[in-house]
Structure of 2-keto-4-pentenoate hydratase:
Amino acid sequence: MDIEYAAQSLWEGIQRKQHMPEQWRGKFSPAQGYAVQLAVMRRMLAAGEVQAGWKVGLTSAAMRAQQKVSEPCFGYLLRSGHLRSGVRLAMDELIAPGIENELCLTIGERLQGPHVTFDQARRSIAFVEPALEVAEVRGDFAADLNLSMADNAQQRAFITAEPQPYDSRIPLSQTALDLCFNGTHAASATGVEVMDDPLNSVVWLANKLSEFGFALEPGMRVMSGSFTRQYAVSRGDLVHASFQPYGDVTASFF
């Protein structure tokens, strides 16, 4: 597998808003899918984008069941995709969008795998933000998971509210989510749904990234994984997620 050739092919397609091309279906191993993703990221950065951090996906049992997979996954976040709570997003600019509700964690101390522990991850977190991830269903995610990873695991944007200093005495597993669509309650969950504790996402991510020569650097944000399944959004939707004790985040679609 020529990773750079595959990455260039996907990169050129992305510029034309074409994703997960048929010619690459079934062609990547798990490691190759991630390697292509990271090679595309390098092209993004060379073109002027700035990396904001990473996302961890498929962290809840509900998400893994929905996508028919058995382990988490990762993708990269770009600064251009960082939006603030209250944002209005145009449906015409999105591809089959979905929304996920999660905590965004800011790294304060470098984490380098492959042997990062839970306690090290806990000491590394500086801030916590209530967050929503805007995902795009750009193809059949579960049918070719490796190609989905090459296409950055459905990532499009991430929305955060005001950052709160992280108090390690309060387990993130106790964070309580209340999710509403258009003023109607849709779901409740706690941080236990995210690999028993969102910090476990950070542990997994730091150790997984080490396989590809990356570490979690200070200042990077980590979207730590959805408390619930992914919800499709429609024109006119208002999404409101309350994460106690960290606050609320909202987004609307027109």
